[in-house]
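Reviewer 2 asked us to include a model.

Predict the structure of this chain.
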Amino acid sequence: MRFSLASVVALAGALVGCPTPGRDVVPESRDVRGDAVDAGAGAHPPADAYTYVARRPHGAVGLVGAHFMSDADAQRIVDRIADDLETCARRVEQRGELVEGALQLVAVTGSRGTAEISDVRFAPGGPVAANALECIIAPLRANSFPAATKAGVPAVAIEATWGIAPSANLDAGADAGRPL
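Predicted model (structure tokens):
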């Protein structure tokens, strides 16, 4: 029995589910920067807050958490994912194939020094899965990841959302700080 790529992507999207109902992947009031936390008091951001968020015109990527890597490395990874997402989203938008979408994933350092992806969840829909695979997962797997150490294997958990960018006719700063 043969399956088309579109049917496999649609099935994968249906099987992995979607983010919890009623919760945006990058909520407006949850942007928390790592330096905004009072480190002297030992306080941590709330469990549903991001330690870092990288926003671009077509999307946003939030760092849920990182293990066995520095904050600077984790932030560089999130920025790289956001940059790759933006570049790809522009290309996909020109083809007329960009849809609103969201994903959650965990990336760990693999044996080849690149990211291995696990625990992926997409918002429903084959086009969402196709955008996620092309614009986030494939570029993430192609880039190097911090090397494993005796302490453990580096990993990041991220959430991302994307969609068509606001019109170029809008005030250039009008969408700054607002959710997609």
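Residues 5-38+46-162 form one domain. The beta strands are 52-56, 59-67, 101-109, 115-122, 155-162. We have added this to the supplementary material.
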